[in-house]
Amino acid sequence: MSSDFKEVEPGLITDNAFKLIGTDWMLITAGTPQDFNTMTANWGGLGYLWNKNVCFCFIRPQRHTYGFVEKADTFTLSFFEEKYRDILNFCGAKSGREVNKVKETALVPVHSTSGGIYFDQARLVLECRKIYSQDIDGKNFLDQKIQTFYPNKDYHRMYIGEVVRCLVR
């Protein structure tokens, strides 16, 4: 762990979750120190479920990161200051199948003792243990306008992760 991160209880996060995820965005990362991938996301949430602090995030099956999250027991959510917006844009627009995102962006991966991979430039990191996943089913949309997000019926998989570590600057 980078020396300027401090571990805190998740309940001490003071960020507005709507802004943190919906506006500021995050990198979802999973894999091993030798083979991992990251992607930008802004769909998800934070909360309390099954007597646990949890996050939930969504990944389409065609995303390269999907396979890494599927194989891993853990994933991380890394949040950044606005000055890193270009990195978030790049990691959302480029596939890890075609480019080395770490090399192209100068992100510095940190390998956690609990198996997670996050980035030294982050200001907030949530290390999460996968506890549930489910594919979105279009027939369950109560508001049919949501289907406009899925013209190809390529529905996301939702992951719920127990927040096992919370690191802040």
* Shape, principal axes of CA atoms: globular
Largest β sheet strand count, sense and barrel closure: 8 strands, antiparallel
What is the subunit organization of this protein?
Answer: single chain
How big is the Rg? 15 Å
Q: What distance lies between the first and last C-alpha atoms, to the nearest angstrom?
A: 12 Å
Number of strands: 10
User: What's the overall average pLDDT, rounded?
Assistant: 95
Q: N-to-C SSE series? A: EHEEEEHEHHEEEE
Total helices: the number is 4
The proportion of strand residues reads 35-45%
As residue ranges, the low-confidence spans are: none
Describe this structure in words.
It is a single chain. Helices cover 17% and strands 38% of the residues. It contains four helices and ten strands; from the N terminus they run βαββββαβααββββ. The chain has helices at 17-22, 64-71, 85-93, 101-105, and strands spanning 6-8, 26-31, 36-41, 44-49, 52-59, 74-79, 109-111, 117-119, 124-135, 157-168. The strands form two sheets. Strands 1, 2, 3, 4, 5, 6, 9 and 10 form an eight-stranded antiparallel beta sheet that branches. A two-stranded antiparallel sheet has the order 7-8. A hairpin with a 4-residue loop joins β2 and β3 (36-41). The radius of gyration is 15 Å and the shape is globular. The termini are close together. The mean pLDDT is 95.
